[in-house]
Structure formats: C-alpha cells, structure tokens
Write a structure and sequence with these properties.
The chain has 445 residues and is mainly α. It is 74% helix and 0% strand. 51% of the residues are buried.
Length: 445
C-alpha cells in the first residue's frame, strides 16, 4: 500500500496537468470518441460543443458564490474563533487527518456545497493548529468527505425521484427517501465510509516517504489574522457621508435581518430544503452581519473573489463536454453496453461503474440522472432489478469518480491554494478503496 500510494503520488505530480488543461484534454477525447463511435461528423461534434458551452452558467455562478461567500463567512471573527476552537481537538498530525476527514464528511452529508467549503476552511485552521501535518494529505482528506454527498441529505437523485412530478414518474413512480437515502444498503455504505475514511487518510499520511508541507505563506494568508478584525475607526470627524455609510453597522444589521427573515421563511415554507441557493444565501447574509460594516464585508469579498477564477473559466468547458456526450449519444452508448451485460443481481453494480465513467464527462448529479435515468430504470424494470437501488447506483457512481475528477475539487483547491496534482495522487487511493464498500452495499444489502 505504501508503494502504491507513493507510485500514484509520483505519477500524478509528474503527468497530471493543471485542472484547466485537464478539461481541454477531456474535450479533445470526447470529440474523438464522438467522431469514431457515433454517427456524428467532426462539424456536428463542434456544433454540440459550442451549443452546450454556456449551459452551466447559472451553476458556475452558484459554485463561484459558494467559494466567495464561504470565504467571507469564514473570515469573520466569530466563525474563525469557532473553527479554531474545534481545531484544538487535534494535537498531532494523525489527529488532524482524522478530525478533518470526519468533519468534512459530516458537512457533506448535510449539504455538498456547505461541505466543500467547510472542509477546506476547517482544514486551514487545523493546519495552523498542527503545522507539522502534511498539508496536501490534509486537503485530500477534506475533499474525501465529498465522496459521501450523494448518499446524504442533499443527494439530487434520491430527492428528485421522491418528488411528485419528476420526469420518470410514469416509469418508476415516486420513490420515498426511506427506500433510497435511509435504505439498509445506503446506510451501510455511508457508515462504512464515514468511519473508515479517516483511518484510510491517516494511513495515506503515514505512507508518505517524507512530509512535504505547503509553505505556510500559501495558506495562512487565506484567512486573515484576528488582530485585523479588531480594527475599528476611532474617529469619524473626517469621514465623508459616503464613508460614514460604508462604515455603518446599522446598514449591515438592517439588510442582514432582512436576509435572516427570508431564511426563516424558506425553511418554514419548504421544510429542510438545504439547496445550493439557500446555502449561498445563508453564507452571504451571515457574512454581512458578522463583518458588522459594509466596508469590512467588501474588503473580505475582494480577497475572496480571486479564488473563483478557475471555476469561472473551466465550467463552460465542462458544459461543452456534456453537450458533446449527450447530443452525440456517447453517454447513451456507454450506459446501454453495461445494461447488455447485466442481470437483476449485477445491474446495480454495473450501473454504478457506468455512472462513474460517465461522471468524468458529465460531472453533475442532476445532469447525469437526466442522461442515465431513462436508460437504467426501464432496464431495471425489464430484468426485475430494484429501481430504487439502481437509482442510487447512479448516485454513488457520480460521487465515486468525483475523487479523481477536478471539476468538484476546484472550490476546495481555490481556498487551499493548491493545484489539482497536489491532492489527486491520494484521491486515487481513496477511489480504489471506496469501490469495495460501495459495491458490497449495492450487491448484498
């Protein structure tokens, strides 16, 4: 295991390009696959690519705001003190790895956007507490929690098929979360991963031949010093009316209370609907309130925006890849091949594997279900397989290969100040390990 971990780390460090170039290479690969394995001509593949290029603009904005608002909230005195206090539970590198993995996993089970940001920010505080911990493994541990998201409360596929009126209702009906999220097979997978991933990551840290911590200057600056938060303007005599407004606590309080009122209304009206928009909304308005003045909030936002550049540039390329995969029929061909070799017993496993492959090119849970759901569910009904388990197999396949797909790591890497190659060697090991409990859960529970 030590040799294998070192091998993957060396290979990734040497050959894996920046996440932007990874997206370009995937674009070339899907283009060629479409030309050679479908009836699409090169001109048509270019058309599919360009037409789909802007289909993720709303989602790209959501993920950019996750990074920006999460940074702003984490840069408030009250949140920094809270994270710092929890980080004191770790006193050694081993404890740091265990704690970060567990906290990130719990956060991702609650909500995937919340989990990505909290995991990264908490890891930074733990790294300050335990500076001898391998920073790259620590951030890989924070990202490993994302493996659990589709088995948790924000899982898009189980929540969608539990909603009356979903697009496959005529085929499979409405399936309650008691048969998906709270089923025995899903709970088995979640609990095994929740309680074994921390020890796997601890092993990955120990398997390193030597510790290579990222320079403190690369991550300590992400969250400003507490001393800066205590700075206040002691004299207002020379301030202009505009500057007085910018430094007014009343302005922040009023708009913050409006935001809190809507948050309360949202949960009263919709129940525990912790979607990506309401997470961003909560982060944003708590940030406004906790920073106390508009000027402090805006100063923090200026530092936060620089972290969102990779997301803004790369997400359109993934939208173009999705356009080629779906419109050319490549994703359908992949799914149908796995269906052709399946039985009622093996269909969930092969659905999981096929979903993991498709996720490389369609890295969106909802988008992937739109592609694979209409293929896998009729196949499950035809051969007598469990439709709820088949749907969750798509969900777990989507979550599984996120470990080696930079798409979802971008927000965490932006906050951490790392490149994708810094964590991906360890994530390969997490991918290989997690295949075992997920497969067991889908086959035998």
């Amino acid at each position: 295991m030590k040799s294998l971990t070192s091998f993957f780390d060396r290979m990734v460090q040497r050959f894996l390009p920046d996440a932007f170039l990874f997206a370009i290479i995937l674009t070339f690969a899907v283009f060629l696959l479409g030309v050679f394995f479908t009836n699409s001509s090169p001109i048509q593949m270019v058309e599919y690519w360009g037409t789909g290029f802007w289909d993720l603009l709303a989602f790209a904005m959501q993920m950019s705001l996750i990074v920006v608002t999460g940074y702003i909230l984490a840069n408030t005195p009250i949140v920094k003190k809270l994270l710092s206090k929890i980080s004191k539970l770790a006193n050694t590198p081993e404890q740091a790895i265990l704690l970060v993995t567990f906290v990130a996993s719990i956060a991702c089970l609650i909500n995937y956007g919340f989990g990505i940001v909290v995991g990264a920010l908490f890891a930074i505080h733990v790294a300050k507490r335990v500076p001898t911990v391998d920073y790259r493994v620590l951030m890989a541990s924070a990202y490993s929690g994302f493996l659990l998201w589709h088995g948790g409360l924000s899982g898009s596929i189980p929540l969608l098929i539990a909603t009356p009126g979903h697009f496959l209702e005529d085929t499979m009906g409405v399936i309650p979360v008691t048969e998906t999220l709270f089923s025995s097979f899903n709970l088995f997978i979640v609990f095994v991963l929740l309680f074994t991933l921390p020890f796997l990551n601890r092993f990955l840290m120990k398997s390193r031949n030597s510790l290579h911590n990222t320079d403190a200057s690369q991550w300590q600056s992400d969250i400003s010093d507490d001393s800066k938060d205590s700075q206040t303007i002691t004299s207002t005599d020379k301030l202009t009316p505009a500057e007085r407004l910018e430094n007014s606590q009343i302005v922040s309080l009023i708009i913050g209370l409006m935001g809190l009122a809507f948050i309360v209304y949202h949960f009263v009206a919709n129940g525990f609907d912790l979607n990506i928009n309401i997470v961003n909304f909560i982060f944003l308005f708590l940030g406004i309130i906790f920073h106390k003045t508009p000027r402090r909030f805006l100063d923090s936002a200026t530092g936060a925006v620089k972290n969102a550049g990779g997301i803004i540039i790369q997400f359109p390329f993934y939208a173009g890849i999705m356009g080629m995969m779906v419109t050319s029929g490549l994703s359908e061909q992949m799914s149908l091949w796995f269906v052709s070799i399946s039985t009622d017993f093996t269909l969930p496993l092969f659905t999981f594997i096929s979903a993991g492959i498709v996720n490389f090119f369609v890295p969106s849970g909802g988008g992937q279900w739109a592609v694979q759901g209409p293929i896998m569910i009729p196949a499950a009904l035809e051969i007598g397989a469990d439709t709820a388990k088949t749907a969750m197999a798509v969900a777990w396949g989507d979550a599984w290969t996120n470990m080696i797909q930079p798409f979802w790591a971008l927000p965490l890497l932006a906050i951490a100040g790392l490149k994708v190659r810094d964590i991906m060697g360890f994530c390969v090991m997490i991918l290989l390990y997690s295949f075992i409990p997920i497969s067991i859960g889908l086959l035998f529970f």
